[in-house]
Design goal:
Elements: H1 3-58, E1 60-61, H2 74-84, H3 88-101, H4 106-120, E2 123-130, H5 136-154, E3 163-170, H6 175-187, E4 191-195, H7 200-213, E5 217-219, E6 234-236, H8 241-255, E7 260-265, H9 270-285, E8 289-290, H10 304-313, E9 318-322, H11 328-338, E10 344-346, H12 353-359, E11 367-370, H13 381-390, H14 396-412, H15 418-426, E12 432-434, E13 437-439, E14 452-458, E15 466-470
Helix pairs in contact: 2-3, 3-4, 4-5, 5-14, 6-7, 8-9, 10-11, 11-12, 14-15
Length: 473
């Protein structure tokens, strides 16, 4: 072979070797260029998870932080610090001292019960979700029912010898926050039931998470029909919108002879929409009519000053107010502008201290459909116990939260697992005696019960000059 041919072969050999060698290098470099993007994506995902975790943990407390700051005190603050450090004896002393100054603080009562339970080391844990940043008074009402049920069971031997702890979570009645809270509770294997949420929008958003995670949710206050049958792990102790609306429509059309009713509702709130639709159906069924008055609390151009005049112009003989919890102030404005021209009807959301405090005489004689009233059942033991515990019998939200908690307690007495609790509540034979009578669930998760009527009248119980009083036409 000539030297020229040999040199050519050697060159081809090194070229091939070079190409083979550079291939992995090119592959490595090309993949290396992708690495910063994947690394940034992973970092972003990790940051998001960490942020969500911190966000939810700031809103959840077993007794290690004060969520209702309006009810804070030096003793209560010292109690949460001691609890967080595992010094349960000091926590008990401090929470007790705080309650001596404010006996109506339901968060304080729950924390005290939690500390006493922690001291024994033999506990069973549930959660309750309330809208502290959305409606503080509603949150207190719900927590009082939970706190009273917890106190009673823990002072009568607990659940199979285990004392009940209640973790409080704040969702602000925000559906997005509610889903994050629900996700955190589902992941916490120590939680065996959730009492909540308050608003129907929050409950509907969170329900699929509880269902998928196999954690029982019992809402004490959500009435929207969309919650009915949403999942086998989802229950409620309040009557649905259908039962409440039918009760009110019967009074309005048959008893009060109001046959042409104008309606104000919140088109962005499921509970308000459900109540409106069920009320319209019930009014038509009973022979009444609904005016074409356009009154939407959620509308950008909502003007409370014009509503009553429009309704009267449309031939209305009464005005029905069905706001969401966070639109209660708009309903108050409508009532003020009405100046007594049209008789007022109201949904269960109007049963609030703010209605009495802000509305005063403008709401006098308004009739509402609610789940319960303490004086509606003569000799009601819950009302008597609540009056002794809190100084007052409480609202329908307190009673429904109590019923939701005692239902969970009754179900857990047979087994303290999530799955067994669901089976117990779903059993056709399940029934307990609660604040508002028998608590029994339909296959849809709804409670088998009806509503009751109340009327706003002058009185001294609330301290506003007006009270919600039981009413029979």
């Amino acid at each position: 072979m000539s030297r020229k041919k040999l040199n050519k072969l050697i060159a081809i050999y090194f070229l091939i070797v070079g190409l083979i060698g550079i291939g992995p290098l090119i592959y490595w470099l090309s993949n290396r260029s992708d690495r910063p993007e994947r690394s940034n994506a992973s970092f972003t995902s990790l940051f998001s998870l960490n942020h969500n975790y911190k966000f939810t943990q700031r809103r959840i407390s077993l007794a290690n932080k004060v969520l209702i700051r309006a009810d804070n005190s030096p003793d209560k603050q010292a109690g949460v610090v001691a609890f967080a450090q595992g010094d349960f004896a000091t926590a008990i002393d401090k929470f007790s001292a705080s309650l001596q100054m404010n006996r109506n603080d339901p968060e304080g009562w729950i924390y005290l019960s939690n500390a006493k339970a922690a001291q024994t080391g033999n506990v069973i844990k549930i959660a309750t979700i309330v809208p502290i940043g959305g409606n503080l008074n509603v949150s207190r009402e719900i927590l009082r029912g939970v706190a009273q049920a917890q106190y009673e069971v823990n002072n009568t031997g607990g659940i199979g010898g285990k004392l009940l702890q209640v973790e409080i979570a704040n969702d602000d009645n925000n559906p997005e926050v509610a889903t994050q809270i629900a996700t955190a509770l589902v992941k916490d294997a120590s939680i065996v039931a959730a009492i909540g949420h308050n608003s129907s929008d929050a409950s509907i958003a969170a329900a699929p998470i509880y269902q998928q995670g196999g954690l029982v949710m019992i809402s004490p206050t959500s009435v929207a029909r969309n919650l009915s049958g949403i999942g086998s792990y989802v229950f409620r102790t309040t009557p649905s919108a259908r039962f409440l609306a039918s009760t009110l429509a019967s009074y309005a059309v048959i008893d009060a002879r109001k046959t042409n009713i104008a309606i104000c509702s919140d088109t962005k709130a499921e509970a308000s929409k459900s109540f409106k639709e069920e009320f319209i159906a019930a009014v038509f069924e009973k022979g009444g009519k609904i005016t074409n008055t356009n009154c939407d609390f959620a509308a950008a151009n909502f003007d409370p000053q014009e509503i009553a005049s429009q309704a009267i112009s449309d031939g209305a003989d009464s005005l029905f107010l069905a706001p969401s919890v966070d639109k209660l102030n708009q309903a108050v404005d409508v009532a003020r502008a009405n100046k007594g021209r049209l008789p007022l009807l109201g949904s269960h959301t109007m049963y609030a201290f703010d209605t009495l405090q802000q509305g005063q005489a403008d709401f006098n004689s308004m009739v509402l459909a609610v789940a319960w009233h303490p004086a509606a059942i003569p000799g009601n033991q819950f009302a008597l116990k609540a009056k002794k515990f809190w100084g007052g019998a409480g609202s329908w939200r307190t009673a429904m939260a109590y019923d939701a908690t005692v239902a969970a307690i009754a179900g857990l007495k047979s087994s303290n697992s999530r799955e067994q609790l669901q089976k117990a509540l779903s059993n056709s034979g399940f029934s307990i005696n609660g604040a508002t009578g028998r608590v029994k669930f339909l296959p849809t998760g709804d409670r088998n019960t009806t509503g009751t009527l109340v009327k706003i009248r002058p009185g001294k119980i609330s301290g506003t000059g007006y009270d919600f009083a039981p009413f029979k036409p």
